[in-house]
Amino acid sequence: MSKMRKSDQDIWSGNIIRFMEHLVDVFILGLTFIFIAEVNYYSENGVFIDIIDLFIIHQNDIFVTAVYLILAAFFFMVYQVTISRSKFYKLYISLTISLVFTNVILIVASFVRSEFILGSPLDVLYTLITQMIVFTIVKYIEYLLIKKFRKNIIVTIIGPKEQALDLAKEFFLDKNHYKVLKYVFFEDNRDSISEEVFKYIEEANHIYLLDDLSVKNKNMLVNYILLNTNKELYMIPRTYELGILYAQNDQIDDTLVLRAKSMRLTFEQRFLKRSFDIFVSLVGLVIAFIPMVIIGLAVKIQDGGPIFYKQTRIKRGNEEFQIYKFRSMHVNCDRMTGPKHAGAKDPRITKVGRFIRATRVDELPQLINVLKGEMSIVGPRPLIPTEISDTLEEHPVFMYRSNVKPGVTGMSQVYSRYDTIGIERLRYDLFYIRRYSFWLDIKLILLTIRVMFDKEAGLGRENNMDIFELCDKNNQTINNIDNQVLKIEDK
Known about the structure:
12 strands, alpha/beta, globular, 491 residues, disordered N terminus
């Protein structure tokens, strides 16, 4: 096996570009802030003021301004408002949410301080509108620059045929990236792999290895990619690989060993999490009271049926409990089919139900389950017993996602969809348990707000086309090379 030429890292995907973009974002926020302050001063005094004099007059607001810019940077990073990662149309929702949250501190300051630099809450609204206009222009220009100057990120997928084709299909369905799938290489032998694989690794920037690769082949490919190339390696993890994430080093005499903690929360973590759950559920029920009344009336008026829907779900320790939700389906629709997850165009869903599911507000009554201690604000999705039993037949480790309480929101709720299969949910749930921290919970709660505007996440995705049909739809063609490699090219 000859050593292959190392590829250059794609600077457009690196941290330098994102850091520079964030600096530009904060700079623009500061400029729009000063612009509105100048306009406000002009409306009161008939002249513009020097920027230095403006800050001298409002020097007591410098702390608030600094906090404002720090918050802006925080929200922009949480929501990944970076055009180097997300395409323009996907970025816009994240941008809007980030700016709204960022400007909350200005609204509070304008009420608290009568001599605040922006004058009144109305000026804050003008600031938000100005920022939306400016950022729309700037982000679109950045998008055009990236589209013009960055090279395509070529992707090669390596794995067993069926699983490789499934991931290839996901690439065509996911439009929110700059990656171009070019090769799908099938593992032809569990004991070894064709030397041809190195050719397709060399021609790609990013390599995706699937979890069902044999241990021998995966070990060889991981070592080769990480030690001999500058390619970026992506792996769909097996459950044990998730378990040893963030393992700490230890030793027995002079032998290096890795120490992995149990996939459970400590007493201190559970105490903090429960305290947070009680506080958020109480505050949430108070804030959401009027919206919940309106939703309840809409559900009732729709067909006269019950407002709430109760269903048996599994909680921590694999015990059953009754979950509360606003009813989004027709009455008694489960009698013929039994309980199951809804699809994108499920006829059981009512018109009101389609809206409240898409926006996730059908789950607001689950705050009652949180207050009772049956659920947490953040955790794995609470699943029905049959779905768990069906998945356990193929994946016995699925039961251990119940090592923590189920959540109103969580990693699988944020990053997957209603119709995501069980094994994919399991990966997100185990990853959440391993990575758990209070700040991760805060991040997932914030990201849930973005998911509420994503119709596909709330209702699932209907697409019955195979990879060949999807490829044709994208004006591309697939060439079969020696029945072992698929090469995808533009027509």
